[in-house]
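Fold this sequence, please.
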Amino acid sequence: MFKPAEMNEKKIDTRKSTCGDYLNWREFACGWGAAFINVTITYPVNKIIFRQMLHGVRTTDAFFQLKNEGISYLYRGMLPPLCQKTLSLSLMFGVYEEVRKPLCENGVNPYIAKALGALLSGTTEAILMPFERIQTLMADSTYHKKFRNTFHAFRFVKGYGVGEYYRGLVPILFRNGPSNVGFFIIREEMQEKLPKYETELLRTTTEFLCGALIGVFLSSLFYPLNVLKVQMQSKIGGPYENPLQVLGNIYRERGCRISKMYYGVGTNCFRAMLSWGVMNTAYEHIKDHIY
């Protein structure tokens, strides 16, 4: 059965009224909680994808790499993405709403307001790039014996200057902003078009599928930027590279075949489906309890 439209509208209005004119900390909290649940579930799958991006190998080869390294290395390097993702999604949802809402209240076109809010939230997330940088190094088998733990890796990279934490910034900026725009606009369009179910199971399933479909689409669209980012961040020290030159090198190293730029995209789609499905579902359920 569907919920009456009046009930749904009343629920939305109640949520808005609790925020007042103050900083809506609830959106930041919902994003943080959703990311925590997401990372702890999807980290092993993400690590397989990372190996495929870095070495250009198939899913089975990446799986056996991790299997041969042993269970003790499986969750190695999870602290940086856990810190980065929880703060990142907190900023993503919080900054987006703090920018979008006042723009809409002042008569700005809703789609422009959403796009500006999403772009600014994506750019703000880049502040947390050092966590993503260390995650790349910790997941690379080249550095297994070099770094004792996450904090050791942070100290080691710091020896090359603060700028070393931000190696690979350009592809991250080109990924974060546009992907956030796509996520928020598509998500809200789907929420308006999809029916509202009153049973918990159907509602949860709809939320999961909504997040999963958006995640698969956007992660596949921006996959080459992640390949570029991983390649740039797998190095420590030396001159900062031109992203276009690095992209050209990857293309040539992989036999000048565009299809090889997408090694790992299948596993990435599975991870994105699981990750964004879990994230969207967790966000909506946390939001129901926190408002």
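The chain has one domain: 25-286. Confidence is low (pLDDT under 50) at residues 1-20.
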